[in-house]
Amino acid sequence: MSAIILRRNADFREGEIHLPSSKSLSNRALIIRAVSSVDFPIHDLSESDDTKNLLSSLADLEKDINVGAAGTNMRFLISLLSISPGNYILTGNERMQKRPVGELVQALISLGADIQYRKNPGYPPLEIHGKELLGGQVSISGNISSQFISSLLMIAPNLKKGLEIIIKDGTVSRSYIDMTLGLMNYFGVSSKTSTNSIRIQSQKYRPQEYTVECDWSAAAFWYGMIANSKPGTTIFLKGLQRNSLQGDKKAMDYFKQLGVETKDHKNGLLIQKTPTTTHHISLDLLHEPDLFPVLAFTCAALRIPASFTGLQTLNLKESNRIDAVANELTKTGAICKTRADQFEITDYTSPSSKIVFDTHDDHRLAMAASVFSGSLEEITINHPEVVSKSYPDFWKDIKTLTIVNIY
Fold this sequence. Notes:
By secondary structure, the chain is α/β, with parallel strands linked by helices. The protein contains twelve helices and 22 strands.
């Protein structure tokens, strides 16, 4: 599929979908199962490309493992392979080989891990010789990626001396670390946390059945759709939980400023468009940076000036998300200003009635762009298949709901 054309169905007023399972929780549950060495059942695993890749990699840990574009898999597997007897080559696609892992690798080496860089220092591919690690204390920067810390946390119970992580330079995406600790607690692992440290003693995971929650990151795109709808329009998000381990549940609060109310409903949540007089939105997304694309596209679709901070990790995603979002929103008439960790829409000029959005090989940009189907006569999205990384049925769900007509 090289491109799709979306035209909004003006008659759409209500619908229902069952969201995909959380990729973040699925991947953490799979790693915990691998560390525990007990094959407990995990229900409703994500159907995303990333989770399928991880499931395949874990099913048979071979010498050569290629995670493709899955950054989470790369970071989680570095720690897991470090404690798994055997010799491994861990690599990814071209973009992955430009995404830094040096901070995590150095932390593991300080614990006794045997890891070498195959090409460029600080970047994949890696050669890993797995062995038993004693553990102890390790210091790591928290301002690069929360996944480095989550990766270390999940192997901590298996280390003879446990693990104390000293976090330097603040923490980005803290909600994802809390998600990891929450899931580990579900499987019986206790921890002690403070502002700058996390301590986990040597202990055993308690294997038990686990059912993966619906994905709040995916839900955010439907919030964007509703925000750019007529007042009274609703979507029932079947299976979505208000009380969730996922930090992206903050979408409820952020989109409320854009006129989307969240109502408890049996077996899910109902989101509804209400009248709003919001003239500007200003958000710090330090702990929920994955919400940035859909929030920025929604504000642009509503022609609302907006400013976002806390975006310093977004240049290390599937695309450089700050630049990529600016490139695409400029096509809509948005006047954008960017910095390394900030993004601002200051004003708007008249957009074309038909716009072609590029996805920059980034699933979140593809889904965020769909929000504009409620504002423009027609939009085209190039390479829409990238959504399979996290939400393979996204276009199918749009078509099923008749929110838009797809050509």
